[in-house]
Amino acid sequence: MKKLFRPLPTLGIFSALAMAPLMANAGEADLSKAIVDSPTLVDPWVDTIRPISNPTHFDLAIPQTQLHPIFIHNRMPDVVDTIIGKVPVGGDYQVYAVQLELALSERLSINATKDGYIDFNPDNTLESTDGWANVAAGLKYAWLYQPEDQLASNFQLLYEIPMGNQSVWQGEGDGVFVPSIATLKHFGNFQFANQFGFKLPVDNGAESTIFYTSAHVSYKLTDWFRPLAEVSWFNVVDEGDGGARFNDHIGGALPSVVAFEAGDLVNWGASNADLNRNFVTAALGFRVCIPDSPIDLGFAWEFPLTDQDQGLMEDRFTVDMVIRF
Questions:
Q1: Closest CA to 280 of 219, 213, 204
Q2: What CATH number belongs to 66-324?
């Protein structure tokens, strides 16, 4: 057994002779070159910002964990279109809401998109009321996810629970399913986003069936400032039955009298919405991305491109905050 260990000193001598030239030059070597920085992981979506207008239906294609407080101030037209002519309304309403999204993986998230409190203050005809909105939530799945190309697309299915107050035009029907597809793409400093879907009521008499789509373009002007423009289109595919609902307003006759649907937040089930099926808006605004922070702030001014008396919007101001985790 001793013979097995006799070569080891010889091996040690040869190893020392082989290392001698390197050790001799150790003082001349730049040891800093031997230190290799570990690679820094860069979030491919770090420059991605959330749309602002149509907040209950327009979202990003990528799942994220985030909290999204929203404030909306919506001025209503002086008169609106009905089957008995132009009826005075005016005034405004405010919405206070918080959306929540929880990412389960890079492709899948739970998304709660509608909730909040509505303060309704018309000048004429309708009653001043306030109350809770319906709640909508569901799943978002990114079927296309290519961060290396900054490209993503998702399928989302939400269910709107009719648990809000009828005084603010919520809480009617048996709920609404909202399937949609969203797409996101970056080109240099430009960001493009789109979402389209349907509002499919379980009771298609109590609520109208509506197609919608929204588009967004923004530009990274600086590390912290992103101007943006957005457009949204709502189309009534199948109008409701106009039954007596929302008794606080003109004795429940509103769905049978009004000649349009109410856009993103309200669905009357108006039987004469076929007279004005389309409602289109544009929005101009910006996002401020706070440096070294997961928080950004947004502002948008929105206005109708269709006749304003064929909707509930003279113009709208939306202020929001996005907090990512």
A1: 213
A2: 2.40.160.40
